[in-house]
Design a protein that fits this description.
mainly alpha, 5 helices, 63% helix, NADH dehydrogenase [ubiquinone] 1 beta subcomplex subunit 10, mitochondrion inner membrane, electron transport, NDUFB10, transport
């Protein structure tokens, strides 16, 4: 790049920009439309939006903490009450999903403990292993052998048969 610059070719802009003189007495239409738009459209929309935000701030709703009311169990439904059957089935499905997530969380905790402890995992992660064994046994007792198409009715029947077997085992043990 050459050292000597041609100052005439690259003129420096003036340091002070002169003020624009008005040539007409009419107001600028752009500022007029901006002002009208601000008062007619923007101000009401902003007011309504801020009012809605204030109302929502008063009543916080956390969608990820949705709580469903407990419905009667399938054993508590009356005969022919199909709405109760449907609600009990939906409740059972939600309970099953929650139990699946509990098992998965305990399994992830055990995996993290094994990863963290390395060769000492058997003595340092014994509590997590015991907890996983208990949770999986409880899940298997309740939902095991139901298959993919298991529902609340078959789960209830399984529970009834298990209780009958436990009673028979107690009667045989007491004799």
């Amino acid at each position: 790049m050459p050292e000597d610059r041609d100052w005439e070719a690259y003129k420096v802009p003036p340091t002070r920009t002169p003020a624009v003189e008005r040539t007409t007495s009419l107001p600028n239409p752009v500022t007029f439309f901006q002002t009208v738009f601000g008062y007619v459209v923007e101000a009401p929309v902003t007011f309504v939006r801020e009012w809605i935000e204030r109302q929502q701030a008063k009543n916080k709703f956390y969608y990820y903490h949705q709580k469903f009311r407990r419905v009667p169990d399938l054993s508590e439904c009356l005969e022919g009450d199909y709405l109760c059957f449907y609600e009990a089935e939906a409740q059972w499905r939600r309970d099953r999903m929650v139990d699946q997530e509990i098992v998965e969380i305990i399994r992830e905790r055990l995996g993290a403990c094994k990863q963290r402890e390395g060769p000492n995992q058997f003595q340092n992660c014994a509590k997590e292993m015991e907890q996983l064994a208990q949770v999986t046994k409880a899940y298997q007792d309740r939902y095991g052998d139901l298959g993919v198409h298991g529902n609340a009715r078959t789960c209830l029947m399984k529970q009834k048969h298990r209780m009958m077997e436990e009673r028979k085992a107690q009667e045989n043990a007491s004799q």
